[in-house]
Amino acid sequence: MSETALHNPTPFEKALEAAFAARSKTNECQAAAFDRFTKRRFPNRKVEGWKWSDFHVALRNFQPAGKPQTAVIAPSAFAALDPIEIRIVDGRIEMPGGDAPDGLRLGIMDTMASIPELDFHPIAALNVALARKAVGLEVGEGVTLERPILVRHINSGAGFSFGQSMMRFSEGARATLIETYEGESAGFYAHLFHKVLRDGARVKRYVLDETGASAITHAICATKIDGGARLEQTSLSTGGRLARHETHAHFWAPQASASIDSVSLLSADRHADFTSNVRHLAENCTVRQLHKGAAKDRGRNVFQGKFFVDREAQKTDAKMTANALLLSDAAEANHKPELEIYADDVECAHGSTVGALDENALFYLRQRGLDEAAARALLVEAFVGEVVERIDDDQVRDIFARKVKEWLDE
Q: CB of 47 within 8 A of CB of 62?
């Protein structure tokens, strides 16, 4: 431990050191990962890419306390879809009972190292060092899963926990993946997700983050997308004390494509951060990205998106849009769209807007009998509805629409 000791550690960093030292055994990869974390520590606002989501400040006085609460876990909002449900409760994996459907292999496996692009990511390094087991899942070649896969991340205590998942979707596979982040606790939870889409695979991924106002969440989804494969992703977050969801998508072969959509609905002093890095490493790949954020009270909406286009990635077609509504004077929206292009035959664009509700539209609705609250809610619902309506699964779309309405009703 002397080689990986932190200098002037915070109370939380001391707890992390103790947790790492208490592990019965660690391999060389985990030791190296913890060493990388000790050199970088939690990122702060002085680090590019983290200036609006300062984990160092959020966790500086974090005091892990108490054992996880043993409470009955309520059914998921997606229970009616009859999903294959996997739970990660305070870092502990609970696999579904019974036999898996034909063409699906799942189980609990040893944890993995991060991909090279994340080697210098401090929270990814911490996850590699401290996660104990990982969810392993593989969908076979040409298999279409009729039931969705549901991974529920449940943080029930005031401590800290880490989770990992590794999923492989073979050639021509079709699957729907749903992830939920749940729990009213004030704990810290970090998840590292590796996903591979082989040639011609198609995966729909839906993420719903509804943690408590005091929760601190960090999630990374790193996806390798091969030739002709497609990722369709939609995320909705109501934030927490600090909630950051990162998407890293790498196009490795021609004709790969993705849509990466997200919605933040923030009230009180909740904070949500959607950060993405899409790397085009092959020609003729397409991506569409749309973010919508609505913040009231002192809510803080962060969006950071980057398209990297390699010299070999000719014929790239990439478009990014981020729009935000500020529903109070104290609300914030921080957007950072980026393009880094080395190819010369591409179509790439990005746009960003931040504003308040249209007073003319409000006046129009008031003149037709709506009170101000109902008129404002209708306009916000239409604003974020552009993302929700892009979901092509009727049942999932209805659930997302209901979550939007519940937030507006509050």
A: no
Mean pLDDT of 165-193: 96
pLDDT in tens, 236-282: 999 999 999 999 999 999 999 999 999 999 999 999 999 999 999 99
Q: How far is CA 17 from CA 4, 8, 54, 202, 208, in A?
A: 9, 12, 21, 41, 31
Written as six digits, the tokens of 1 are: 């431990």
Nearest CA to 338 among 327, 326, 349?
349
Question: Residue 191's Cα: distance from chain center in Å?
Answer: 9
| 392 falls within a domain | no
Domain assignment present for 296: yes
Q: Would you call 7 exposed, middle or buried from its count of C-beta atoms within 10 A (0-12, 13-18, 19+)?
A: exposed
Number of domains in the chain: 1
Is this model's pTM higher than 0.85 or not? yes
Q: Which DSSP state fits 115?
A: P
Closest CA relative to residue 146, chosen from 124, 123, 182, 175 = 175
Cα–Cα dist 12/42, whole Å: 11
Judged by DSSP in three states, 362 sits in helix
Q: What are the residues whose beta carbons fall under 8 Å from the beta carbon of 400, sequence distance 6 or more?
A: 206, 208, 234, 236, 263, 388, 391
In this prediction, residue 237 carries a pLDDT of 98
Assess contact for 50 and 29: CB atoms under 8 A: no
At 43, list the tokens: 């990122």
Residue 383 resides in a domain: no
Give alpha helix (H) positions in 1-131.
11-21, 28-40, 55-60, 122-130
Alpha carbon of 366 to those of 228, 359, 372, 380, 404: distances in Å?
Answer: 49, 10, 7, 15, 22
Q: What is the pLDDT of residues 127-152, one digit of tens each?
A: 999 999 999 999 999 999 999 999 99
11 within some domain = yes
Predicted pLDDT of residue 1: 41
pLDDT at residue 69, as a whole number: 59
Domain that includes residue 47, residue range: 2-66+79-356
